[in-house]
Design a protein that fits this description.
7 helices; alpha/beta; five-stranded parallel β-sheet; globular; about 180 residues
Length: about 180
């Protein structure tokens, strides 16, 4: 004779504990910004800087730079846009201190796991469109990898003039809700 053991209650408890643990795991030791375009990234850096001040954590700007197969990955031509003097000067003029990391790769989708620790807080600047944009694909890819992504929609009129207090306040409120809930 065989014995029937009910595991549904144990499985439900284990699933509930696992989902609570996943919801609470957001790494807040640094705020990461992913490079998309110069203007969109500057908007994301402004929002990230406001969050960084509120949380007392540093900013890290990451650019996954793809290198064509005809060139050597060790010695690509030119500079990343985030390494140029003009870009760094704009950040310095706004009083934003940011660490910059450039990853040279053949396929940016394959190196995402090398750029971030698990469950990072990442800010991406971009636009929403009727077709999925590059920034939206980044957001989707990073969220699927388990990161918490704040998408800064730069098509908003207030972002065009360089001011971002509304976006930073919205992002800060969203984070407070997550941490206090």
């Amino acid at each position: 004779m065989s014995e029937v053991i009910q595991l549904t209650a144990a499985i439900e408890q284990r699933t509930a504990r696992g989902s609570e643990a996943r919801a609470a795991l957001i790494r807040t030791d640094s705020i990461y910004i992913v490079y998309t375009t110069i203007d969109d990234t500057l908007a994301a850096v402004r929002v990230g800087a406001e969050l960084g001040k509120a949380m007392s954590v540093p900013l890290t700007l990451i650019h996954f730079r793809t290198v064509p197969y005809v060139l050597s990955v060790d010695a690509p031509t030119g500079l990343s846009p985030v390494e140029t003097d003009g870009f760094m000067k704009r950040l310095h003029e706004e009083g934003i201190d940011v660490r910059v990391r450039v990853y040279l790769c053949r396929d940016e989708r394959r190196v995402v796991s090398f750029g971030f620790k698990p469950h990072c807080l990442i800010v991406i600047g971009g636009r929403h469109g009727w077709r999925q944009t590059v920034a939206e694909r980044w957001r989707q890819r990073l969220e699927a990898a388990g990161h918490f992504v704040l998408f800064v929609d730069v098509s908003d009129a207030s972002m065009q003039d360089g001011s971002s207090p509304n976006m930073a306040a919205v992002a800060a409120d969203r984070l407070k809700e997550l941490f206090h809930a």
